[in-house]
Amino acid sequence: MSPDFAITLVYIGYALAVLLTFGAILTWVERKQAAIMSDRIGANRAYLRIPFTQVKLVWLGLFHGMADGLKLLLKEDFKPVTYDKLGYALGPWLAFTPVVLVFAVIPFGGTLDPGALFPSLADWFDGRTYPMQIAPLDAGLLVVFAFGGIAIIGAMLAGWSSSNKFSMLGALRAGSQLISYELVMGLTVLGLILIYGTVDLDAMVRHQSGTVLGFLPAWGIVYQPLAAILFLTAGIAENKRIPFDLPEAESELISGYFTEYSAMKQGMFMLSEFIEIAIIAALFTTLFLGGYNLPWLTDAGFVFPGGATFELGHGAVVAIQVVTFLAKVFLLCSFQILIRWTLPRFRWDQLLGFAWKFLLPLSIANLVVTAVAVWALT
């Protein structure tokens, strides 16, 4: 096995562990955060009993996610008569897989030097260093939007193939909604592309190191505050969550485009929704919050204003960068869940009007002002 292949396998394992953990933990966070906001106790019934004792481990309801997973795994996989059996089977995979693949181009840390971390393997790695990114592509941002388009196909295919009027209506809503808000997302990031001159996500993060005016972090949100708000709004709409959950809309369409799915096929749709919360948070962190950067943190340690330094080893720097990235992502996930339990659902005409009549003109105006500013300053 080559060193490059070994590092890639480690990165893939790390990415899958992080995404699946976020998907599981966020089901608990949603329940408990909703309970706290509503002045309730929340999920606390599922437990594990210590064998041969009466001691029950409740752990603030953490076992509810495990109970949900077991329920979905053990339920009967009901298969209705469909228009297209192949489309019905592919729907959950086309909704789930692209969401996971997006993480491949997101940098979750700086540069890794395995030889410095593990001196016994220094000869094997022969001084090689690796960006902490599964696929360090020059066109990483374009890959994000390409995979996002595939996820739309999964939702539409699931609704169309289910032979159910509620599912079909949910699929039509999903298609028109995702296309509308993906256009807004694309226009908001064009301002960052003009500023940084690249679509390489790792290069964008490196541009956000350092400070502005000596004290502000040089993050994308400082340069593009309006774009940050528009991007996060469109991202929540892409994930089809309240106030943008018209494709599902339980009170109107039962479960929308996946009404006819059960067992783990339904679980894949639900898990992909929670993983997408983490993906949106990771993208926002990468584009607008400096990614894995902390103010004044360099590869050698902290360099504070005035010349004071605090040296750190390579392992400590890598650990701080990874933890910083995960902490930013988790806080943004909690913020998205807060919005989900704060705002009411739009009507369908309001949802599309909000995209085309409000967000789209704002994103175009932001792009024009950014282009003029970049031209004037160069």
Task: Please provide a written account of the structure.
With 378 residues, the protein is mostly helical. The protein has 14 helices and 9 strands. It has a 3-stranded antiparallel beta sheet with strand order 7-8-9, with no helix packed on it. A two-stranded antiparallel sheet has the order 1-2. A two-stranded antiparallel sheet has the order 3-4. A hairpin with a 6-residue loop joins strand 1 (48-49) and strand 2 (56-57). The relative contact order is 0.13.
Bin the strand percentage: 5-15%
Average of per-residue pLDDT values: 84
Number of strands: 9
Strand arrangement within the widest β-sheet reads 7-8-9
Overall, the morphology is globular
Give start-end ranges of low-pLDDT stretches.
none
Order of helices and strands: HEEHHEHHEHHHEEHHHHEEEHH
Number of domains: 1
Radius of gyration: 22 Å
Give the N-terminus to C-terminus distance in angstroms.
48 Å
Q: Quick one: biggest sheet?
A: 3 strands, antiparallel
Question: What's this model, at a glance?
Answer:
With 378 residues, the protein is mainly α. The chain has 14 helices and nine strands.
